[in-house]
Write a structure and sequence with these properties.
The chain is an alpha+beta fold. Helices cover 32% and strands 11% of the residues.
Length: 123
């Protein structure tokens, strides 16, 4: 196993489920009972081999949990540059509405990053 990896598991339920997934941009509600956040602690003094091993482990962990737990969502504050369907996984059915909000308040896409909400539907 690669060094410098943490896996934080948060149990969900209670007040998180008082709102529907369509009430806010945070879609991760029922039936999610947990949120697992694997992370690599990439500090400047780690070797390239250690970093590569850690990133490989994270990719295997994600693929395994996707296959075993059938998760279809990813938490948008834990960016994963390898996700191809990141907009769907981050925002689900809320995406179209969030694009409209983005278009209204940031029509020039000034606030952006490689996985930010676009100003137009890309698909």
């Amino acid at each position: 196993m690669a060094k410098y990896i943490t896996v934080e598991i948060q149990l969900h339920g209670g007040a998180i489920n008082d709102l529907k997934s369509s009430d806010t941009a945070y879609i991760h509600r029922k039936p999610n009972l947990y949120k697992a956040n694997p992370d690599y602690i990439g500090l400047p003094y780690r070797s390239e081999e250690e970093e590569a091993a850690a990133l490989d482990w994270l990719k295997i962990f994600f693929a395994t949990t996707r296959r075993v737990m059938h998760h279809k969502e990813s938490y948008q504050n834990n960016v994963d540059p390898d996700l191809k369907d990141y907009l769907k996984r981050y925002y689900g059915k809320n995406l179209q509405r969030l694009i409209q909000v983005k278009r209204m308040y940031d029509p020039t896409n000034y606030f952006n990053n490689p996985q930010s909400i676009p100003t137009a539907w890309l698909f």
